[in-house]
Amino acid sequence: MTLPGRLSSILGFLSAVAVLCVFVVAAFSIRNAVERNLTFQRELRLAQVDRARLLRLQIDEETGVRGYADTKMLLFLAPYTAALRTFGPTSADLGQHLPRVAVDEAPLRDELDLNRRWMRTVAAPLIRNPGSHEVIATQVEGKRLVDQFRATDAILYDELNAAAERVETSTARAVNQTLVGAIFVGVVLAALLTWLSAAARRLSAEVELQRRAYLEEKRIADALQEAFLQKSLPVVAQAELHAVYVPAGRESQVGGDWYDAFELSEDRILFSIGDVAGHGIEAAVVMSRVRQALLSVGIDEPDPAAVLSRANEILLMQDATIVTAICGVIDLSHGVIRLANAGHPPALVRLANGKIETIGATGPPLGALDRPSYTVASAWISPGSLLALYTDGLIEYGRDWDEGERRLLDALRAIPADAADPADALMREIFGTEPPFDDVAILTVSFRESILDGGMGHAAAAERVRPILGRSLRTLLASAPPMLTARIES
Questions:
Q1: 225 or 288: which carries more pLDDT confidence?
Q2: N or C end of the chain: smaller count of CB under 10 Å?
Q3: What radius of gyration do the chain's Cα atoms show?
Q4: Mean per-residue pLDDT for 303-315?
Q5: By three-state DSSP, how is residue 411 classified?
Q6: Same domain, 44 and 172
């Protein structure tokens, strides 16, 4: 073989080796970039979990101490004690994860400092002397520190997300540069591109599976929420019932808020509203159980306090989470509302003259105590009055309860007396077009005429405006879950 031939062969060999080297380098570069990204994502998930857990522990501590200060009951210190044991290890774990994802530890140090200040200036005084005349001022200081903790947590959350975006961008840039460089090496690059194409197809298939799983979970959550929400409300002669439910704007999961109203007879309406702690499928299941318990007991039990007591027993047997609720009966024949309250925001009545009264029944949340005591409060029905029941998402305005309650009272006064849908009007008056921070359920009852006057009797009015008064409760519940229908019929 001639020298040019040998040189050509050598150059061809060297070119092939160069192409192979490019293939190997490109493959290993992409693999390393993907592995680094996966490692970072694992560290980021651990950091996000510890960050969220640290916020929840601070809230648990604050909730437990505040509950103890309000009730003097040691039971409410359980969340505080449990969170106290976990707070230190969780913050230490978070401190190890932050450097690995290139996030400054300053927000974590600020959170630890806020927690120490809260323990020293709020928790210790309230636990030591819950009956002190300075309890309110101490709780206000505690709320201020917790709000600062939330704000610092939001900063840390944003920094973690920013770090994730930086790594994702860096990984994408490295992969793109490798591919662009490999395009210039020739025919052998086809093998590399084939491999990359296969890897991309596998990644695309995995992403598609994850997307479909997310859409399926969301579809199930939406279907559950749609099934759990009451499709229609009772139609009666002297009153109009309206309701609205709006999920939290920051979450797509099904929530634990509900409202119910059913006709027990032509002149008695059983109603309830409540809120299960948490979100997701588990909260929805607990919500369904509590609603079934309230309805199945309330059909035969005229005392709302007894209905809540029985629902509490059922909830304890199922070892479920905490639930706040109001259960009551509207007696149209006697013109009175009777209700009991299990740790829920109080029911409000706006009179025809614009004055707002609170129906002051009190009691602990369902699932909190073995043998709670509930009281029944009553309110007379007057012409032009409006009964409003709601879940706490309506008054968690910027996490400021005082401001939320003030806005609620102002909104309730601002609703026109002839509003077509007071529940929807109340929601719009408070939130406008902005989504609520938490799930919100509202149930309103507008009383248009006096039940006790000498005019047209209840039966005649019902015959005129409500031809479906004779519909039975069983027909109303025909679309309810089989378990609930079987329970009622038994």
A1: 288
A2: C
A3: 31
A4: 93
A5: helix
A6: yes
Percent of the chain with pLDDT strictly greater than 70: 77
Amino acid type, 55: L
Q: Which residues contact 333 (CB under 8 A, 6 or more apart)?
A: 267, 268, 451, 458
The structure tokens 């900063």 sit at 155
Residues 167, 88, single domain; the answer is yes
CA atoms of 160 and 149, how far apart (whole Å): 16
DSSP character at residue 245:
E
Q: Are strands 347-350 and 323-331 parallel, antiparallel or unpaired?
A: unpaired
Phi, psi of 472 (to 5 degrees): -85, 165
Quote the CA–CA distance of 327 and 249 in Å, as a whole number. 27
Domain enclosing residue 99, as ranges: 16-186
Q: Which helix (H) or strand (E) holds 475?
A: helix 473-476
User: In Å, what is the CA distance from 402 to each residue of 94, 131, 140, 250?
Assistant: 33, 22, 11, 22
| Token pair of 477 as six digits | 């519940």
119 exposure class (CB count in 10 Å sphere: 0-12, 13-18, 19+): middle
Beta strands 356-359; 323-331: pairing state: unpaired
Here the tokens at position 462 are: 């019902």
Both tokens of 401, joined, read 């309860």
Q: How many CB atoms lie within 10 A of CB 458?
A: 17
| Tokens describing residue 196 | 């990359």
E-strand ranges in 60-106 read none
Q: Is residue 452 pLDDT above 70, yes or no?
A: no
User: Measuring CA to CA, how many Å separate 446 from each of 72, 285, 381, 414, 460?
Assistant: 38, 31, 10, 15, 19
The mean predicted confidence, pLDDT, of the chain is 79
On whether residue 219 sits in a domain, the answer given is no
Strand order in the sheet with 323-331: 257-265, 268-276, 323-331, 336-342, 376-380
The three-state secondary structure class of 271 is strand
User: Do residues 392 and 438 touch, judged by C-beta distance below 8 A?
Assistant: yes
pTM: 0.50
